[in-house]
Amino acid sequence: MDQSFDDVWAEFEDLFAQARQTLATLKEPQPAHVVQASVNSLFRTTHTLKGMAGMLGFPSFSKAAHRMEDIFDLMRKGRLRSTDSLVETLEAGILALESGVGGLRRGRSEPEDYLESLRRQLGELEALARPTEGGVQDLTSMLDVPPDTLKALSEYEHTRVTSLLMSGMPIHGVRICLDFATFDERLRVYGEALGTLGELISTLPWDVPEDREGLAFLLMIACPDLDAANLPALDGELLGTALLADPARVPASLREEEPAQAIEGPLPEPATPETPAPVTPPQEVEILRLPAHRVEALETRLMAVGQLRDAASLLLNRTRLANEDERPKALLGRMEDGLLEVQKSLLQMRMVKVESLFSRIEPMVKGLSRDTGKPVKLTFQGGDLELERSILGRLTEPFLHLVRNAVDHGLEPALGAGGPGEERNGVPADLSLPAGAEPPLRHPG
Asked: Do 63 and 110 share a domain, yes or no?
């Protein structure tokens, strides 16, 4: 594949790493707003994957990514509940897409369906998400906002308002007025602050007061309670806060029907004011990508400067006088310290933790264990060990192959009531993978 695609493959790698990390947050009990933020992030990630594949001319990949995007859309709209089995299926889907990108990178042709092995599971999920007879209830009319503001809400925001009110979560509004020059940065600050208190549903335009100049907004947030003292407001920015919708006003008959469609994952903790404080939604990390040739050029230049430093040091030692001035020597020492720090930073730019490989192994082993009926106990050690990025990339596929063979050929199917850890024919059903260690392989015969 053309080297001009290097940045594209790096973009794919980062998106898949972000998806795996976000899916991991759904495996543990989290407040509802954190679950929702994770699902929103996954929806955006798969949407980006779909768009990239379409632009690069990979229609089958784009179609598969679109299907995963639809599943995450059903979750964020409240039509699928976050469960362990659902997360395992989604992990398998992301792994299938990631493996597919690896094949494309090596020049393989596209398969007809990247998600063929998950066709039954995904079909069941889509069937579960079909709306019930009579359509979906809409409670956005309970919001205490002007009719024109209600019209600005998207379909997703309608479903979130309804789902949150039915689950008993109040919806508050924060009205602010920001300067033209800094409104985008200030909006980001408000969004991050409100995200730690609950779920930020929408940011809507608002009428600017007659005595003010700037841009006004209504921030709609779902949280148990809202204290204006917790907002990062500068002087004159905050116009007011209000309770926009009280879940106590939802008819009891609707609340009784809610359990069939609620998705708030490992709820119902958010009802206590102290719950959101220690937990914050996953933050999307901004990643600076540098082409490898630029880093290598920087390293070459740094080596040349290092050689100049050595020459200057040698010259200084040869020409110093008896009443030498110590200042040049001190300056040279500071230069040397600085160059060493830059060299160290450049080396660290290429280093990647081995745990990024482990995150690909876990869903694969779970799927193999389920498909083959072989109970497997999987443990990892040494995830903090760092390897140079290209080395880890070359090790990934062989390592996955070794682990797959260990499960396929090194373990026997469960016999009777045997479970994980039981030794069968001298082979323990326990796959422990320390970093850098080769898993035990045992072939029949």
From this structure: yes
